[in-house]
Write a structure and sequence with these properties.
- The chain is α+β, with helices and mostly antiparallel strands.
- It is globular and about 40 Å long.
- α1 packs antiparallel against α2.
- The strands form two sheets. The chain has a four-stranded antiparallel β-sheet, sandwiched between helices.
- The termini are far apart.
- It has two domains: 1-29, no CATH class; 48-177, Transposase IS200-like (Alpha-Beta Plaits), CATH 3.30.70.
- The chain contains three helices and seven strands.
Length: 178
């Protein structure tokens, strides 16, 4: 056994420098036949989605205002290329909320382009490599006007709930002012 890190599949524990720990991320399996395939993304009848991108391990994905401006720049750039409608957004330090409607490219293709472009820029700026976002993006379908308004309100109020602003008018990194 290595004295560094060893993952034992059957018991799902880690051995770190001789000390045993439970694995924080157990793998879901299908009766021992390996990992389950991920579920297919639900398709919206309206084409509208609430999208959530989170930093890997909930780490910061925006170190400062320049980073947030760079992400918004990519949202606007790919809006023309992918032909999507952006109804709302909120940039938090470690995650992003988007309310989007796919028109041309699929929402998956749009997000792949936006996130890849941003990660390339971010990694170059901070002289790092590897993933920035956790897993694939999360999405919820928006099928009614009521759910659309509820999600848009939720997105714009996110900085308030996190204690980053006292009013929605103080939230600098949302689409509320647009």
């Amino acid at each position: 056994m290595s004295n560094r890190v060893k993952v034992v599949q059957g018991d799902r524990y880690l051995v770190l420098f001789g000390t045993r720990y439970l694995s924080p991320c157990p793998t879901k399996t299908n009766k021992g036949d390996g990992p389950l395939p991920r579920t297919k993304r639900q398709k919206s009848g309206t084409g509208i989605y609430h999208i959530m991108l989170r930093g890997i391990n909930k780490q910061t994905i925006f170190e400062g205002e320049e980073d947030k401006r760079a992400f918004i720049k990519r949202l606007k750039k790919y809006k023309g290329i992918c032909d999507y409608k952006l109804y709302g957004y909120c940039l938090m330090d470690n995650h992003v909320h988007l309310l989007m409607k796919e028109n041309g490219d699929s929402i998956s293709d749009c997000l792949q382009r936006i996130s890849s472009s941003y990660v390339y820029w971010y990694n170059n700026k901070y002289e790092r490599c590897g993933h920035l976002f956790q897993e694939r993006f999360k999405s919820e379908t928006i099928e009614t006007e009521v759910s659309f308004k509820k999600v848009l309100r939720y997105i714009h109020q996110n900085p308030l709930k996190a204690g980053l602003a006292k009013t929605i008018y103080e939230s600098k990194w949302t689409s509320f002012h647009e």
